[in-house]
Design a protein that fits this description.
alpha/beta; TIM Barrel; 8-stranded parallel beta sheet; two-stranded antiparallel ribbon
Length: 379
Amino acid sequence: MPTITNIHDLQRLFKKRVPKMFHDYVHSGSWTESTYRANETDFEKIKFRQRVAVDMSNRSLETTMIGQKVSMPVAIAPTGLTGMLYADGEMLGAIAAEAMGVPFTLSTMSVCSIEDVASVTTKPFWFQLYVMKDRSFVENLIDRAKAANCSALVLTLDLQILGQRHKDIKNGLSVPPKMTASQIYNMAIKPAWCMNMLTTKRHSFRNIEGHVKDATDLSSLSVWTQKQFEDKLSWDDIEWIKQKWGGPLILKGILDVEDAKLAVKSGADAIIVSNHGGRQLDGARSSIDILPEIVDAVGDQIEIHMDGGIRSGQDALKAVSLGAKGVYIGRPFLYGLGAMGQKGVTTALEIIRNEMDISMAFCGERDINIMNRNHLYLS
């Protein structure tokens, strides 16, 4: 096993272990992937102010996200198909997050169900909701999240229709994988992944399977899902969901100041500045680029989180310094999981924590809650 010192080390192991279709699903964006790339590269334009001869002892990354205590301002993002990267992936990710004291967010399109994750955790996790045309199904999902004692609902707003993801189309991405000659070959050359996936019965969208009367097998389940994303989603729907849920509500997919203002009016508790990891509108601004404008516009009225392009603790620290109360990691979490399972998730979180802690010290601070724009040079 090579020495792992950063997220890119995990990414390389992930590529070696996971079949091509699932590697490309994680490691790609939509269309030309310009926004996907910008999410990462725009962080490079932001520089830290180094300070010296300051007290660096007794440092703390502890803070809160939507009023909940977290060991650092980092949450695991909701990611679809996670359980196809490693057997029972969402369950393992939730266990690792709980041990590290950070929130875990389960996707509607997860392989492990809400109930699966609740069965292996002792503290509340967060649930991410897609609004489907079948409103009875949406209501059922919310009721199940309540029954599982989920402590926040993350409502994704930027997937009313699916962005064109060229690699997924070319690979014929599906759950479970279609047994074409190319897919059989790609799985055959990843024997460790194959053996691992044989250890679990969870190979489908278990939040949906068994809960939709018109989807009785995997084929009909896939067809149902593709037709269900609500293209008529409106702010009135958010009010309905807010009332139905009754708990902390986070709106994910805000990438415009005007939408941020509407989010404030909706009564949500927080927003996530996000472009869906560059997987929806290609050519949109990166999350870190638009973040300061949204903070300036509504930061005193609603809690602001962000995701997109976080590949290190330094990236997370830059986002926090620009006004984000917390950040979400998607790909770093998936790289760790696909590379080494639960241990890999823990390793990814430890890397980000260590990089954030040391970088904060070099900026002359001991408390993450003090970090602000004065600690940065903005080009």
